[in-house]
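Reply to dn_fold:

You asked what the input looked like. This is it:
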Amino acid sequence: MTRSPSQLPEVASVTQRLAVLLNAGLTPTSAWRHVARGRPTEGVAAAVAAAGDDPGGAPEQIVRASESLPQLDRQAWNSLAAAWFVAGQVGAPLAGALRTHARASRMLVHVQREVATALAAPVATARMVLALPVVGLLFGALLGFDTLGVLLGTPIGWGCLVIGGGLIVVAVRWNRRLVRAATPTRAAPGLECELMAIAVTGGGSLVQARTVVAGALERFGLPGDGDHLEEVLQLSREAGVPAAELLRAEADELRLAADADARASAAALSVRLMLPLGLCVLPAFMVLGVLPLMVAVISSTVAGF
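and this is what came back:
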């Protein structure tokens, strides 16, 4: 089954355009309608635009429209909903926060593309090797050997089918596990610090800002940043400086660290994918393509005597 394309480029594009339109003075409802033009009618942007001035607002519409999406895509849309929600709760300007969110989404898009690039060569090689048993069977048939009969009609052939099929199944599962391990699992690293930066620019107290941010993370099912937020707030108190810039800097650091880790995993993926190819796929080719041909050759030679 073909995997549906990632929504992350869509999230980055929608968020960036919303930021520009809001900064130009458009209302949120008008901005969503302009952004939704030319996009799929079943998409998240179209759903939010169609809701208009719904009392639930854009955040709730985003959550509803993205419920059926894969986890990473859903997190990306819900991160946008959380930023929108926090800005609305504290009365903070939204355009700058949306620009930051768009930048984080684009970073994740680049990482996904690197994973796909790292995967392309090993997958193409594995498919070519998996086609070799069929080539071997056809080659044997052209030479006059009953390789297919050996594979399907003899105990040795049945054993080859079991062993070769098992190796292929192991290789496929191993490949999927390696790809999952190299695929980012968080759509917006540093989101908690970024939301806190939005909240404190609204002019309220730190206690109120933390309450709003914690409520947003829980409401939209998003992970936090661990102890990073508390460390930044403590540094702000000790140094006597505003927390907003420190929080944004920490969010940038967390995004850069997550991006570096994901790029390293993607670079290592192309090497790691050689393991199932060499340990499973190539032996499967030998068992399914070469061994039946050898048995057929030996059988025909013995029968000739």
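The two ends are 50 Å apart (CA to CA).
Hope that clears it up.
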